[in-house]
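Case study 2.
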Amino acid sequence: MPLDTGAYAQAARARNGATPCDPPYHPDMIELTPLDLPNLRRIEAVLQEFVL
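Prediction:
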């Protein structure tokens, strides 16, 4: 899932020599699916304990 597809990300890809066909995300990123949502909610709950 791309994090940023806006003008800033497009300009960064252009500076790095990427073509419009290149994926707009870092190659090491993973694509999240709806099955990941329960785990992400648990992670979020733990992180919020430290923030609050």
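The mean pLDDT is 72.
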